[in-house]
């Protein structure tokens, strides 16, 4: 059986994917860590800042997958669409090629960013500059980590927010550096900006659709690697 390490940014992504895939929690860690069969899934925090520490707990994998949601840059993408890029372009312009897995067709580029893209105008600028289909904050870091270890890597991301909608800073701030979502911060955001309720519900719906698409793709990976 080929071991596949699946890295997500936040706890919500890891727990949702684990539930959709039927992966049980693995004991011994205080953070989300799931696995069964070919897949081992962990949360490594926004910007993958906890990747080094948490990946040290894994058996060396044969394949790494950066999984979770992404923000669309292409106007053609809608929430729930799957993005499987053939290259990831890092914030400094570095390029990381991905490998094909489980017959999932790869197409286009994913842009790595260091901060949440808050507005449609900022997304439009990034699209013009990079021609990338979508963006996230973790894939470039994860692929750089895999490259340094000689491990093949792929990206499987689902669109959570379309090109004409950004992620407001107050909603992005509810996620802690370790990937946990702070309910108290969400409540404060809603009290300070009533529109945050509608924004949060829209983002939640898009995130759910995106993660369902990712779970289906990871199911193909698991079956191909079993």
Q: What's this model, at a glance?
A:
The protein has a single domain (4-165, 204-225), classed as 3-Layer(aba) Sandwich (Rossmann fold), CATH 3.40.50.
Describe this structure in words.
- The chain is of the alpha/beta class and 226 residues long.
- The protein has one domain (4-165, 204-225): Nucleoside phosphorylase domain (Rossmann fold).
- The chain is 36% helix and 21% strand.
- It contains seven helices and ten strands.
- It has helices spanning 11-21, 51-55, 120-130, 139-148, 169-172, 183-192, 195-225, and strands at residues 4-8, 33-36, 39-43, 63-72, 82-83, 87-89, 95-97, 109-112, 134-136, 153-161.
- Strands 1, 2, 3, 4, 5, 6, 7, 8, 9 and 10 form a ten-stranded mixed beta sheet that branches.
- A hairpin with a 5-residue loop joins strand 6 (87-89) and strand 7 (95-97).
- Helix 1 (11-21) crosses helix 7.
- The mean pLDDT is 88.
């Amino acid at each position: 059986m080929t071991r596949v390490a699946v890295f997500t940014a936040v706890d919500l992504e890891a727990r949702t994917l684990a539930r959709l895939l039927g992966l049980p929690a693995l004991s011994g860690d205080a953070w989300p860590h799931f696995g069964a069969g070919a897949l081992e899934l962990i949360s490594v925090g926004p910007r993958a800042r906890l990747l080094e520490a948490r990946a040290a707990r894994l058996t060396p994998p044969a394949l790494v997958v950066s999984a979770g949601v992404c923000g669309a840059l292409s106007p053609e993408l809608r929430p729930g669409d799957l993005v499987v890029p053939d290259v990831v372009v890092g914030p400094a312009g570095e390029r990381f090629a991905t490998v094909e897995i489980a017959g999932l067709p790869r197409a286009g580029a994913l842009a790595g960013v260091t901060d949440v893209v808050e507005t449609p105008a900022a997304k439009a600028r990034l699209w013009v500059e990079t021609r990338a289909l979508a963006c996230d904050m973790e894939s470039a870091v994860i692929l750089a980590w895999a490259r340094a270890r000689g491990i093949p890597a792929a990206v499987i991301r689902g669109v959570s927010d379309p090109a004409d909608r950004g992620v407001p800073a107050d909603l992005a701030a509810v996620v802690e550096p370790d990937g946990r979502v702070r309910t108290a911060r969400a409540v404060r955001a809603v009290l300070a900006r009533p529109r945050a309720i509608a924004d949060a519900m829209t983002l939640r719906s898009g995130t759910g659709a995106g993660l369902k698409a990712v779970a289906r793709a990871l199911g193909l990976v698991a079956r191909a690697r079993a």
